[in-house]
Write a structure and sequence with these properties.
alpha/beta, six-stranded mixed β-sheet, five-stranded parallel β-sheet, 51% helix, 3 domains, 16 helices, Rossmann fold, Alpha-Beta Plaits, elongated
Length: 397
Amino acid sequence: MTEEDAQAQPRVLIVDDSRMVRASIAKQIRGSFDVREEADGEAGWQALLVDPTIELVISDIGMPKLDGFGLLERIRASRVARVHELPVLIISGDEESDAREKARALGANDFITKGIGSVELLARLQSLLTLASARRELEQSREALAAQSPVDPVSGLVTPAYLHWHGTQEMSLARRRQAAISAMVIQIDDYEALVERYGGHIAGLVTRKLSKILSTKVRKEDTVAQLAAAQFAVLSPSTDIDGCGAFALRLRRTIDKMVMTYRDERIRITISAGLANSATDSVESLSRLIGVAVQRAVAGTSAGGDRVIAHEGEVDATTIGRFSRLPVSIDHALMQLRSGADAEVWGRGRDVINTLLPLFELIESRLGCGMPVESLRQFAQTRPDDEPAERPESSNN
């Protein structure tokens, strides 16, 4: 057998204080397995730590220094996954039922007697290796799925990778429907000073508090991700700068009212938000859209913080109405209605009506059916002071 053949074969560690037993087992399996031998449990344990090629362990119970039970216990308690998951066969006599029970409780996979035949021994070894391989593949699949999960386990928000993928799809959909998509980047002002004063752990708790607030405040169709330690992005399909600005102002007021204490000291934070819109800013890619919003958020922080910045400068309650209202996606509104999200559609009722006004005017001009076009126009041109108007209760006639 060449050295390459030996390396290609699975390596089995045989641990037994009897040289004759080790030699007998090695003779039976050599040709199908590469063999390493150790004379006691302590030597076997050291071999496992330094030899990552070992795929299976055969161990006697009664040995000096460290017996088979101790070796098995160390293997199953190991924090090294490679060692912890190793299949272990215990060499046991037929009369040692108590010993077998104890070994099984400690995590032994199988038992063999010292007089076992070659065919049966090889079959058991191969079966255990196949099972171990299947478990490794399953674990690798789970890890791969976790890595591709759209949810960040720390923040509870979607991952930046998912934000980019999903946002790119929304951008394409918006272009096909001649609609727009808005991006808002929110960052904690003077975050470095927060870390320096209270430490990274407390600053991280503040960040997680903000992520929870964001996840509860956004609409179902919005997507939120954490871009950096103190920076978040919100993508809002079918939303104009007015709607985005109003949300940013509400969020800023919520943060201002937020009470957090550390060692009897109140922690106060402010946020700055940068707003961008695919139509208003004439951008075609998601990366560019978020990039513009990031630049404006940074500008808000640099100007002293606690600011909302859009394409025409700082946004406050008196300037929201200055921004042009963009058409909403009627397809999207209809989809929401079909899913039962009436309140969310009515929350944008003015924008929906404003988008449909040309159609209402055409219908009235051709049919003269008495549509209240002027009343609808006046309603669409007014703005609510803060929260969207609630849909009035309908009466059954």
